[in-house]
Design brief:
The chain contains no helices and eleven strands. The chain is mainly β. Strands 1, 2, 3, 4, 5, 6, 7, 8, 9, 10 and 11 form an eleven-stranded mixed beta sheet that branches. A hairpin with a 6-residue loop joins strand 4 and strand 5.
Length: 111
Amino acid sequence: QVQLVESGGGSVQAGGSLRLACVAPGTIDSILPMAWYRQVPGKRRELVAVITTAGDIKYAEAVKGRFAASTDISNLTVYLQMNSLKPEDTAVYLCNMQTAWGQGTQVTVSS
């Protein structure tokens, strides 16, 4: 089973920034389309951003204008730049490509 590797989570104060990375193995057909999700215990998994096969990027309203997804196709990597972080952004962030998922990375934002 294909496993994606995530990194970049951590703890920051409100207003801070973090950049998440999601690396796919060389066996994957394509890193696109892909999606970033976040999960808070006891709540439904929330879609954060989607990058389509054509490279179009769509964001959830809650993160629009603050988060930016990008790709490094040659290195099979996608990024999620998160700026102006808020306490409500606290969650485990997961990346998804086709049927593969990352292990999740914790993002904690304190007020």
